[in-house]
Amino acid sequence: MKNRTFRDAMGKFATGVTIVTTKVNDQTHGMTANAFMSVSLDPQLITISIDNNAKMLDYIKESGKFAVSILKDEQKEVSMHFAGQKDNPDVVSFDEVYGIPIIQDSLASVICEVDKSVEAGDHTLFIGEVLELKLTDGSPLAFFSGKYGSYQVV
């Protein structure tokens, strides 16, 4: 099976869009990701998947903490900035919780301490213990088959 076919098949799973952030030496680092899921309610755990070649991998290992901000439908430009599709830092505003940057006005932000990491193929899974949550109202930014969209209730 070709990597492109596998990637296309995985793209058929509609997801939300998140920004994973951390802070190292007073520098904020972030990346767009959709490989995110909840793992456990007790204790509260989530997982993110980071490419082993991504700079973010070392930043999270060094800081030991990260946040996942779930984007609203009007935050597409924020996603594109952190995905390297558009260089537009003016669209990004941060708040901080426990010294970890989160995307301001996102639908939800999940602030975590790394519980453990597991190498899996060409990615590393970080399991984060939830320290804090921040929620707002709005509609989610969606991603399907390589394209942004919005979620419609039916």
TrEMBL record:
GO molecular function, one term: oxidoreductase activity
The keyword rRNA-binding appears for this protein: no
InterPro entries: Flavin_Rdtase-like_dom, NADH-dep_flavin_reductase, Split_barrel_FMN-bd
Highest taxon in the source lineage: Bacteria
Classification via SUPFAM superfamilies: FMN-binding split barrel
Domain Flavin reductase like positions: 10-150
Coiled coil regions, renumbered to chain: none
Keywords: Oxidoreductase
Keyword flag Cell wall biogenesis/degradation: no
EC number: 1.-.-.-
Protein name: Flavin reductase family protein
